[in-house]
Amino acid sequence: MPVNPFLSSFQEHLTSLWMFLVLFCFPPGDAPPTPQPNCTDFQNANLLQGTSLKVRFLLFTPSDPSCGQLVEGSRDLQNFGFNATLGTKLIIHGFRVLGTKPSWINRFVRAVLRAADANVIAVDWVYGSTGIYFSAVENVVKLSLEISRFLRKLQALGVSESSIHIIGVSLGAHVGGMVGHFYKGQLGRITGLDPAGPEYTRASLEERLDARDARFVEAIHTDTDNLGIRIPVGHVDYYVNGGQDQPGCPTFIYSGYSYLICDHMRAVDLYISALENSCPLMAFPCGSYRAFLAGQCLDCFNPFLLSCPRIGLMEESGVKIEPLPTEVKVYLMTTSSAPYCVHHSLVEFYLEKPRHKETNIEVTFLSCNVSSSVKITIPKQRLQGKAIIAHSNPQRQINQVTLKFQPSGQLWRRDRTIIAGRFCTAPLPINDNENMVCLPEPVNLQASVTFVHDLKIAGV
User: Which catalytic residues are annotated (predicted)?
Assistant: First the structure.
């Protein structure tokens, strides 16, 4: 059974209550489209109907990705074009406070069907997920059993456990984990899109998503300081922009619904974008986000033997190592809007001689009227400073780099200090030093004066 609400922390209770109140006061206004003839759309419930589960399974096939067919038995699967020789992907939504259809579901289904030749089944449990969050949590076990029984019907048609991929959003991620637990970890893959945090951070492994629930389990974390879970729950756990405060999301509560849900739903947006676009959302293992930004983790040798994981439908996210390590935290930065992907590069500055105070240098990449900046900090009595810069264009398209030595903070007089050193950069992952490019000569930087130099990088 799910964790008793009274045993959870007060903060988690408060978060869930706040989520309910804000969503109630600032509804998203999802207006479900009119379904086509002979197609079935999601149910709509309301706050007074959210007690019974009423699970429905809607099948979408490559031949008609916009038409959901209500599947109630094995005969329906065969009549509606289910192909047992293809992989099967189940999409499970999460908490729906107002009982409305998820606004993202149609686009999600289309993106999956464009990216993979597969059967897609959307699990509609709107009735069981609406109302109060704790009531939805109480329905997780019953829903997981319903889904498990449905998968038995697929197996009767010849579908293998290893060909089943569950994609669960928020609370749906833990539903997927419980289904995987019932199948003793033999399902092919589970993807958790910002798995829910309230009621699950302190849950046992049997009650939440974890790496034992499938042959490959991954999670994308985008709201660990509010609605998402903080702890790693898979073989690979992506902490996007550190796992919280996503770029482009509102920072003030006055934004209402968007303030609360934007970070949480960014995981869904990222996954859809990864399926719709070719630019990679590649991540790098590291001990912490701060260490990653400081340039302390530059490749994927440990523990992935150089196969850096990528968000999307690549087999095991592109990780080519057996057995898979578990609960590996990987980090990446993104932009504020689709397609979200950036290129990560190491930037370094080497002082010719150490200084008795901290040295800060702002580095800016310029390409096609697009700029990206980061600050390098060199501790006192040290010679080297480095950082990771995120830029939207590949390094080969970067035309110039600017360096600006920041003054020491003497407001009453101009800082005329000059430092000398060498600047170098390389795109991640840095598997060797062959891609490292340095400016041809050492540079002299005067405080507050911008130094500009052409940057020509070929074949990167």
Answer: 170 (nucleophile), 194 (charge relay system), 264 (charge relay system)
Catalytic residue among 264, 343, 344, 391: 264
Mean pLDDT computed over 375-394: 95
Measured CA to CA, the distance from residue 246 to residue 223 in angstroms comes to: 8
The predicted-structure confidence for 327-336, as pLDDT tens digits, reads as follows 999 999 999 9
The model carries a pTM of 0.91
Catalytic residue among 16, 129, 170, 392: 170
CA distance 448 to 407: 6
pLDDT of 135-158, one tens digit each? 999 999 999 999 999 999 999 999
Catalytic residue (one of 41, 194, 223, 263)? 194
d(CA 349, CA 341): 26
Its sign, for the CA torsion 197, 104, 36, 110, is negative
174 a catalytic residue:
no
The residue ranges of every structural domain in the chain are: 5-332, 343-454
Burial-class residue 203 by CB neighbours within 10 Å (0-12, 13-18, 19+): buried
Q: What is the pLDDT of residues 407-445, one digit of tens each?
A: 876 655 677 889 999 999 999 999 877 788 999 999 999
Please give the Cα distance from 361 to 406 (Å, whole number).
6
CB 428 within 8 A of CB 298: yes
The pLDDT-based confidence of 367 (bands split at 50, 70, 90) is confident
Give Cβ neighbours of residue 361 (< 8 Å, ≥ 6 apart).
349, 375, 376, 378, 385, 403, 404, 405, 406, 445
Assigned CATH class of 5-332:
alpha beta
117 annotated to bind ligand: no
264 is an active site residue = yes
The CATH code that applies to domain 343-454 is: 2.60.60.20
Q: Is the pLDDT of residue 15 over 70?
A: no
170 catalytically annotated: yes
208 labelled binding-site residue: yes
30 marked as binding residue = no
Q: Averaged over 253-273, what is the pLDDT?
A: 88
For the segment 261-267, the average pLDDT, to the nearest whole number, is: 96
DSSP, collapsed to helix, strand or coil, labels residue 38 as coil
